[in-house]
Amino acid sequence: MKHTAAVITVSDKGYRGEREDTSGPALCKIAEEYGLEVVHTAVVPDEAEEIRKELVSCADEKKISLVLTTGGTGFSPRDVTPEATKAVLEREAPGIPEAMRAASMAITPRGCLSRGVAGIRGGTLIVNLPGSEKAARENILSVMEGLLHGLDILASAGSADCAQEVKR
Q: Is residue 162, in this structure, part of any structural domain at all?
């Protein structure tokens, strides 16, 4: 089953052109390597309303299967990506960020500091990832196989052969 993806970088400096975005392109490459068609990318500032508008557009208007955000998941006062994401989700998927944090903790004790969330809006799965390229790569790779199965379930009529081993 073919799925589409969007990558949204949340960064004040990236939005203003003061810092090169490396995590967004890295996530695009990984998505494509896993067979997803990246149909939309964006860089938005660390502003809750801007993040919400971009997520809603991707889910409701563009009908994108998977939306990955990178950035804004830490402890800085401007890090509001999880709150903006929760505001647009219909159903949370807590196992995804739990798995990513567990994988991160095996690499660094700071992995527990990520506040990223994941969930569903309509037929779209939204996943928050850290802003550093290294952490974003490590996190998405730790859950990508599961995400692909989740996308198949979202796109199906309620079943995606959950008991069958997925072969890609």
A: no
